[in-house]
Write a structure and sequence with these properties.
heterodimer, A: mainly alpha, MetI-like fold, B: Rossmann fold, OB fold (Dihydrolipoamide Acetyltransferase, E2P), 5-stranded antiparallel beta sheet, globular
Chain lengths: ~290, ~325
């Protein structure tokens, strides 16, 4: 694979994929940038044919100036952080549990992975109607069983509820990656630590956790990418009310509910910037773990 | 101190009895080698002593106290694993310090002991490296370092040299032997390589299918093997084990003659055969001879200078004073 010939052949064959991928990424990005500098209100008769009015940074200042902007950033970061903490911690515990030899291991593993196959919209609806409904929900029955007043989960504790729903969806992903990492841990290392006098907890903190370091990094990076753009769960459950309006949801409202494409596009550019800031932070903090 | 006594120890995995009742005493300061073919239960036996496996029945005594119910950490033993089992994310220093840290020694004491161990094992220059940056021999030494800092009452080695290349293996063999002489601590060493067993051991325990075939010093085992298994296992090249009419001449079912106790004689004497492959090692030559009297070729040791061609006729005769005789169950006669 190292001759001049084979290398140029490889480049040539990769070219269509690279071009397609670049187009896929660049066209929406440049259109977003383009619209963000224009006044574009389709309901007021603005259209590409008539030509759009150049407004400079007006959309950008308006988007940030809105009272919803900073709360939406906070909401986004709260969801990302909350889900990450829950999925990583529970994921590690579940991975340890599933790594133990037990009866029906195959079935249990498939069942643990199952939530990941459920579509976000469906799982959010299931949680909303079957579990968190204040009249007929499972939790309402449990609360009443103890003589307590059922909680209106999605309005009284909207953010924690949302984090629970999203965590339930992403826990299988974290568990799966951490389980495979756990399985690659050399059992002789644990035995050596046992001989060295390390009790169970020390073995976990000194041997298992460092071994899982890289897998945890991967879980955090991949989940962050997807969690920043969480949408369906919010749409189905709270509709952005009760402080659960994330940046993604705010952009959706600007573009589709207010029919202001220019303003939404400016929000999209902010979302890109936020994602990059988070990514840089993450790479700084956990990225070292990826070096071999 | 480090006297280990096994009393009717058995081990079962499910219904399979890997180790039938077994008694063994390992004296303080002895270098004992468990040797046997793959799957003979020697590693299991070591793990039973270490406490990494629970015995199914029987008792393990360490220094006259019953250690059977004790967890591995409480037995005061240190183990060197086949894969070395170094902690990859810790530096050499932290690896060696780990058992001391777990024992909650104070920092100065840990530093002192780690540096002492490192200087004994020539690891001082590597203390701040990670195991991944070390060669096989150095990793081996780190594993040994991690074992010696705890000052255990006995060391357990589980095939520690099998991942090293041949030259390094000879070197490490000497180093471990040297270490044993210096520390004078009990060492139990598991290997399938009878050369390691012969060169290092004070006492060899030959195992087959979980059963002790013979216990003794290397030369005892070499000179008076109790049965055909030990006879064939100990010694390189293998002893020639011959059955049939030649054996019956000596009132035995099987006779055994080591290659060095066979002589090349002139025509008309001894057994007639043709020369097969001969292996020239410089100091010795091992000639494989196909004899009419026996189905399998026999190995004969000759001097290094012998010049012999493939296919020539040859006559060999055994030195009858070094003849081993075995009965039909393979047990030694006389």
């Amino acid at each position: 694979m190292a001759t001049q010939n084979s290398r140029s052949a490889a480049r040539l064959m990769m070219a269509p994929a690279v071009v397609l991928f670049l187009g896929w990424m660049l066209i929406p990005l440049s259109m977003t940038l383009f619209f963000s500098f224009k006044k574009f209100l389709p309901l007021r008769g603005d259209s590409l044919e008539n030509g759009l009015e150049w407004v400079g940074f007006a959309n950008y200042t308006r988007f940030v100036g809105s009272s919803s902007f900073w709360p939406s950033v906070t909401a986004t970061l709260t969801i990302v952080a909350g889900v990450l903490v829950i999925t990583v911690i529970l994921g590690i515990l579940l991975a340890i549990l599933l790594d133990q030899p037990m009866w029906g291991q195959g079935v249990v593993r498939i069942m643990v992975i199952a939530p990941f196959f459920v579509m976000p919209t469906v799982s959010a609806l299931v949680w909303k109607n079957l579990f968190m409904d204040s009249v007929n929900g499972f939790f309402a029955h449990v609360w009443r069983g103890f003589g307590a007043m059922p909680v209106e989960w999605l309005s009284q504790a909207s953010m924690p509820s949302l984090i629970v729903i999203i965590s339930w969806q992403w826990l299988p992903f974290a568990t799966l990656i951490l389980l495979t990492a756990m399985q690659s841990l050399d059992s002789e290392q644990l035995e050596a630590a046992e001989m060295d006098g390390a009790p169970v907890l020390s073995r976990f903190f000194f041997i298992m956790l460092p071994h899982l370091g890289r897998a945890i990094t991967i879980v955090i990076l991949i989940q962050t990418i997807f969690l920043l753009s969480i949408f369906a769960e919010i749409f189905v459950t709270t509709g952005g009310a009760f402080g659960t309006k994330t940046l993604t949801y705010l952009i959706f409202q600007r573009v589709l509910e207010s029919q202001n494409v220019g303003l939404g596009s400016a929000g999209g550019v902010y979302a890109i910037i936020l994602a990059n800031i988070v990514a840089i932070f993450l790479m700084r903090i956990v990225g070292k773990n990826l070096d071999a | 101190m480090g006297r280990i006594v096994l009393n009717k120890v058995t081990k079962k995995f499910g219904d399979v009895e890997v180790i039938p009742p077994l008694d063994l005493t390992i004296e303080d300061g002895e270098f004992t080698v468990f040797v046997g073919p793959s799957g003979c239960g020697k590693s299991t036996l070591l793990r039973l002593i270490a406490g990494l496996e629970d015995v199914s029945s029987g008792q393990i005594q360490i220094d006259d106290t019953d250690a059977t119910p004790l967890p591995p950490a409480k037995r005061g033993l240190a183990m060197v694993f086949q894969s070395y089992a170094l902690y990859p994310h810790m530096s050499v220093r932290k690896n060696i310090a780990f058992p001391l840290r777990m024992a909650k020694l104070d920092k100065d004491e840990i530093t002192k002991r780690v540096e002492a161990a490192a200087s004994v094992l020539n690891l001082t220059d590597y203390l701040d490296r990670k195991p991944g940056q070390l060669s096989g021999g150095q990793r081996q030494r780190v594993a040994i370092g991690r074992a010696i800092v705890r000052e255990p009452s006995a060391f357990l080695f589980d095939e520690p040299l099998s991942n090293l290349d041949a030259a390094l293996r000879v070197g490490m063999r000497l180093e471990i032997g040297e270490l044993h002489k210096r520390l004078a601590t009990t060492m139990i060493y598991v290997t399938h390589d009878q050369v390691e067993a012969m060169t290092m051991a004070d006492k060899i325990v030959v195992l087959q299918a979980g059963v002790i075939e013979q216990v003794g010093s290397p030369l005892e085992l070499y000179k008076t093997p109790k049965n055909t298994f030990v006879a064939g296992f100990i010694g390189s090249p293998k002893m020639n084990l011959l059955t049939g009419s030649e054996a019956q001449k000596h009132n035995a079912h099987t006779i055994g003659i080591r290659p060095e106790h066979l002589k090349i004689v002139s025509a008309g004497e001894g057994w007639r055969g043709t020369v097969g492959v001969s292996e020239h090692l410089g100091s010795d030559t091992f000639i494989h001879v196909k004899c009419e009297a026996f189905p399998d070729p026999i190995t004969v040791r000759a001097t290094g200078e012998v010049d012999i061609r493939y296919g020539t006729e040859i006559h060999v005769a055994p030195d009858l004073t070094h003849l081993h005789r075995f009965d039909d169950r393979g047990l030694r006669l006389g």
